[in-house]
Amino acid sequence: MSKLKYIRPKQVNRLFMLAIAPFIGMLLCMWLLTQPPRITLHSSEYIADSHISEQSAKIRSDLGQAAAAAKQTVSSIEKTAVLYQQTTAKVGSLLGKAKTQAAKPEQIYNRRITSKLGAPIETVHSDRIRIELYKVNPGPYHGYAMKVKLKDPSAMSMSLGSESGKPGTVETTMRAVSRHGAVAGINAGGYADGNKGRFPLGTTFYEGHYVSGFQPSFKDLAFVGMSTSGKLIGGKFYSQQQLDRLSPKFGATFVPVLLQNGRKTTIPEKWRSTPARAPRTVIGNYKDDQLLILVTEGYDENGKSGATLQELQNKLLKLGVIDAYNLDGGGSSSLVLNGRVVNKPSDGQLRPVPTHFLFFK
Fold first, then answer.
1. What parts of the sequence cross the membrane (predicted)?
2. Contacts of 127 (CB under 8 A, 6+ apart)
């Protein structure tokens, strides 16, 4: 009979523990995996979170203050904008009133001189020029007055010769007006026939130069034209420097001067009687630089019809003109406005002449 070896309980327990140890390890791992993670905050981390909270609170406070400041700024800007608009409106109103007040003397003066002419029978108005046409019929003669306000100096110019541009060539006032696209025109300086042409008398200034050189005034001849600034200039000039100082833009020559600085000048005896009466073309200016052109009619050049120079001199003075110059007359007198001949030329038709003063819209 064999003997069984005796195993002590302590040995059995050890063997059992060794056998189940792997399973216990596995169960322990599975249990740990199923548990939620635990986070332990250390004191330093808690202090950091507390600091962040304080900064957030300060930022919210700063943002609130910034929003309040922005709201106040917007309100201030709105008030400033309203005040600016009110101030601008007031300034605009004051400027308008000042402009109106400044224009009143001119308007009053214009009404005064216009009242002496009567009611215009025709007007031309643009941003460059204003033209008013009146009838003149004082008794011994009749004709037309054309008052011109040059708002732009370029609204008046002079033509010389014809399309060919050759010295001595001529054309009618109507042709000059049509060729240059003008709204109105009158005959200008005198002329002399010869050398198969009709040549301007004395000094003629055109397109920035003296056409035949400067010729000192002689035999009562006088220059009349416009300066570059749009002012009427004229008189007797005995040196080119005298005329150059007035900055001429264009001009022609004839005789005589009728008024200077609001005073009558002496009319040469020859022009008092030869002819006594005739169709005339005269140009003058008011103290505000408006122009007045008189064109009187007559049926011939023999001294029996039309106006005398003394009559026109007196008429211009009464109308308030301060400077006035006689242009070529007789059959040369012509006034064209809005595409028609206004006066009745004594030749029965327009006479071709070398120079014309033209007006543009």
1. 12-33
2. 151, 152
Question: What is d(CA 58, CA 52) in angstroms, rounded to the nearest whole number?
Answer: 10
Find the largest Cα–Cα distance for the chain.
194
Residue 203 has pLDDT above 70, yes or no: yes
**Which tens digits make up the pLDDT trace of 12-33?**
455 545 555 555 555 554 555 5
Q: Give the model confidence (pLDDT) of 133-176 as tens digits.
A: 999 998 899 999 999 999 999 999 999 999 988 999 999 999 99
Indicate the pTM of the whole model. 0.74
User: What SS3 state is found at 36?
Assistant: coil
Q: Which of 252, 299, 263 is nearest to 279 (CA)?
A: 299
Residue 95 to residue 91: CA distance in whole angstroms: 6
233's CB contacts (< 8 A; 6+ apart) are: 223, 224, 225, 226, 227, 246, 248, 251
Q: What stretches of the chain adopt beta strand conformation (E)?
A: 122-125, 129-136, 143-150, 156-160, 184-187, 191-194, 197-200, 205-206, 209-210, 222-227, 232-235, 248-254, 257-260, 263-264, 280-285, 291-296, 323-326, 335-337, 340-341, 355-359
